[in-house]
C-alpha cells in the first residue's frame, strides 16, 4: 500500500489512488478536522474527490499539484472507497460532498462557526436558504454569493474575498464544479482565512432541483448512473471518458501492488 504521511500539523495519512493522494480517515474524523481548522479561522482547502477528479489529475499535472497541496482530499465516490479498502484501508467509508455539507450545517453552530455559501445561481441559493432555515435553525449563514461562469476581474475577486472576510465565516462551501473550484481554492489559500470546501453540484441537489440517488444506489456505486439519467447531455461525455480510464488505471495499480507484495 502506497502511503504518504502528512506533516504533524495535519494529522492524517493518504493513500495514492491512480497517482493522486486521498485521505485515509473515517467520515467523522474528517469532519472533526474541518471543524477544528474552522474554529481557528485557519486558511485551508478541502477537495472532495471522485473518479472524475482523479482522472483530471492523471491527465493534467498542474491539477495533480493542486490535489497534492490540498489540506484534505476526501473519498467521495464509492469506487475510491473500494479501491482504498483493497489497498488496506479496511475501515474507510465514503466522505461525500452533500453529507459533508449537512454534517457541517448541523455541527457548526455548536462551535459558533459561521458558514458561507459561494457559487451557483442566486435563485438556487435562495431556495437553499429557505430549506437551511428549516433544517438547521441554529446555523449562522455568513453569506450567500453567486458567481458568474466567466473569470472574475481583479476588483470582483477582491470584493468577494473582502465579503467573506467581513462575514466572519469559518467555512466556505464552494460550488463551481471540478476542476474550476479546486483551482479557485488553491489560488485563494492564504487570502481567505477560512476552510474552503469544493462541493461541486451539491447546491442544486439540496435546493431540490436535482434529486439524490437512493441510498441503495449510492452504496452500490451507482449514483453516477442516477445523475446521468437526470443530466445526460452534460454528463455522458464525462462518464464515458473518465470511468473506463479509472478502471484501467485502478486494475493496473492493484496488479502492480500484488506483484510487488509477492516479491
The gist of it:
The protein is an alpha/beta fold.
Descriptive terms for the model:
single chain, 263 residues, alpha/beta, 6-stranded parallel β-sheet, 3-stranded antiparallel β-sheet, globular
Task: Give an overview in words.
Pfam families: Glyco_tran_WecG. Keywords: Glycosyltransferase, Transferase. One of its GO terms (molecular function) is hexosyltransferase activity. InterPro entries: WecG_TagA_CpsF. This is WecB/TagA/CpsF family glycosyltransferase. By secondary structure, the protein is an alpha/beta fold. Helix 2 crosses helix 12 and helix 11 runs antiparallel to helix 12. It is built from twelve helices and nine strands. The relative contact order is 0.15. The protein is globular and about 55 Å long. The N terminus is likely disordered. It is 52% helix and 17% strand.
Reconstruct the topology from this structure.
Elements (H helix, E strand, L loop, with lengths): L2 E3 L7 E5 L2 E5 L2 H13 L4 E6 L1 H9 L1 H9 L2 E4 L2 H9 L10 H11 L6 E6 L2 H14 L5 E5 L8 H14 L1 E7 L4 H9 L6 E4 L3 H5 L8 H5 L3 H8 L1 H31 L1
Parallel strand pairs: 4-5, 4-9, 6-7, 6-8, 8-9
Antiparallel strand pairs: 1-2, 2-3
Helix pairs in contact: 2-3, 2-12, 11-12
What gross morphology would you assign?
globular
Separate helix tally = 12
* Beta-strand content: 15-25%
Order of helices and strands: EEEHEHHEHHEHEHEHEHHHH
Low-confidence stretches: 1-8
Overall mean pLDDT score? 90
What percent of the residues sit in helical stretches (DSSP H or I)? 40-55%
Distance between the termini: 14 Å
Across the major sheet, the strand order is: 5-4-9-8-6-7
> Nearest-angstrom radius of gyration?
18 Å
The main pleated sheet reads as: 6 strands, parallel
Helix/sheet category = alpha/beta
How many beta strands in the DSSP annotation?
9
